[in-house]
Specification:
9 helices
Length: 243
């Protein structure tokens, strides 16, 4: 692990100690960490280390579990999942299933979707498949390609919480990256897949080259997000009562 990666992981560990101190969360994290200390993870790390050295932003980075378990521990704590009764949760773009693993270890009925294998790079397929299996999430992760103006297939079995972290399904950094109309369709459709009192959490990736000081969206999209929820830079929270 590089010095910068070690520093980032150390900072996450400090934040977890300060903000995620509930006994239930500590037990859940210990369970997920125990799963990560396995031969398949060690073998995965050796396989993808050369790729990580060439492309540190690639999916090979997920083969270093401690950092990602800590990050998703903070996400779970920020959502209050360590103190909530069992919720039905959907994580869109679940990737290697770190968020699912922590949420499920807390007793939540958590499911994930991500792009089908045909849309993934070889390293993504390797990393995601290995870690999803290690974290015992294979039966709760399904392939689903999120496309503009295409409804989600979940209205018949709604959720209490829908999350989407570090979003790429919006054609991130592509010429046809989503704007206000696409996001409006997606948010309204996602809210229809939530139970009363449910929440939608969006965590957008930065694209400062396109959006300048706004960084995550254009003005029209920002104004739409503000009209339906709470916006903090790239993080958007929408509750069912808001729509």
């Amino acid at each position: 692990m590089s010095l910068s990666s070690s520093i980032a992981t150390g900072r996450l560990a400090l934040q977890v100690r300060r903000r995620a101190a509930s006994p239930a969360l500590r037990r859940a994290v210990a369970k997920v960490e125990a799963l990560s200390h396995s031969a398949p993870v060690a073998q995965l790390r050796r396989r993808v280390e050369p790729i990580y050295q060439r492309e540190p932003a690639s999916a090979a980075k997920y083969a270093k579990p401690r950092h990602w378990i800590l990050l998703n521990t903070l996400r779970v704590a920020d959502l209050g999942l360590d103190t909530a009764s069992a919720l039905r949760v959907l994580d869109i773009g679940c990737g290697p299933a770190y968020f699912l693993a922590v949420a499920r270890a807390l007793g939540h009925e958590a499911y994930g979707v991500d792009a089908p294998d045909t849309a993934l790079t070889p390293v993504e397929r390797d990393v995601y498949t290995t870690l999803i299996n290690v974290f015992q999430c294979r039966e709760v992760v399904s392939p689903l390609l999120i496309e503009r103006f295409k409804p989600l297939p979940f209205r018949e079995q709604p959720f209490d919480l829908i999350t989407a972290y570090w979003i790429c399904f919006n054609r991130h950094r592509q010429r046809d990256e989503w704007g206000r109309q696409e996001w409006r369709f997606f948010v309204e459709d996602a809210m229809a897949c939530l139970r009363p009192g449910g929440r939608l959490i969006l965590d957008l990736n930065e694209h400062a080259e396109r959006y300048g000081q706004l960084r995550f969206y254009d003005e029209a999209t920002r104004d739409y997000f503000r009209s339906v929820g709470t916006v903090n830079q790239g993080k958007v929270l929408v509750a069912t009562a808001s729509i």
